[in-house]
Amino acid sequence: MTEILTGIYNDLKTHLGTNDIHITAEHELNISYDDFQKKRALLLNELKSELNTTTKKTYLKSSVVSNLSYRILWGGGILTAERSYHPFSHAKNYHKTVFNYANKFIKDEPTVIVLVVFPWYNLVVSDFANSNIRFYRALARRVFCQYIHDNTKFKTFNSSFTGEQTIFEVSKHLSGIIFLEDNTILSKEPDKTNVKSFVYLNPNAIKPLTRSLASDFIMGLHNTEYDDFEYDNY
């Protein structure tokens, strides 16, 4: 979303006819990328209507995207901003991305999605205070369990889907999610396994992975977290 905001700031400078303005956004690091992508024009128009070279506001709270505000500096000086992160909010905002792979779900065999996290690819996910584990587990549980009592049709969520199944019915065709943290490129010990694995199984799967199979697989992985949500499925 950094590139989206940078583009908005550049368009605003062109509109104002000056480069003598510096803007930095304050928001949750886990805020939905879709909010910025879909609402780019609205965000730009909001800045155009609120900022001008006469009043020179130094702070603006967005009415377009929740929990987004701007710190503005006119001329030279130091500009600072604060950003926050919460793994459960991140899971809430991001979990629907997994359903973008719904066309890969197999009806007659177990389906497992593998998501790889590279240190240079996603700077939001951090192991500080185990927030990465909290995020992975919360995301998986939302995909597997959140829609149990929800009758929303999946096609309202994904326009390319033409069936009448609910989100929950579609989610049952996903047997598990595996997150792999690949730290190979930053490792100072290349002879060691530099991949951490986080395995989560769907307790509502139509084609479930058996616990014994999961255990045998997990035993061969390095530094693994595992949950099958057997007692957390509601």
What does this structure look like?
The chain has 234 residues and is of the alpha/beta class. It has two domains: 2-74, no CATH class; 87-227, no CATH class. It has helices spanning 2-16, 33-38, 40-50, 87-94, 131-145, 167-171, 211-219; strands at 21-26, 59-61, 69-74, 112-117, 176-182, 195-201, 224-227. It has a four-stranded mixed β-sheet, with helices on both faces. A hairpin with a 7-residue loop joins strand 2 (59-61) and strand 3. Helix 1 (2-16) runs parallel beside helix 3 (40-50) and helix 4 (87-94) packs parallel to helix 5 (131-145). It is globular. The model has no long low-confidence stretch (mean pLDDT 87).
Features:
29% helix, 3-stranded antiparallel beta sheet, 234 residues, 2 domains, 4-stranded mixed beta sheet, alpha/beta, 7 helices, single chain, 7 strands
Condensed summary:
With 234 residues, the chain is an alpha/beta fold. Helices cover 29% and strands 17% of the residues.
- Quaternary status: single chain
Number of strands: 7
Give the averaged pLDDT, no decimals.
87
Main beta sheet? 4 strands, mixed
Count of spatially separate domains = 2
Count of discrete alpha- or pi-helical segments spanning 4 or more residues: 7
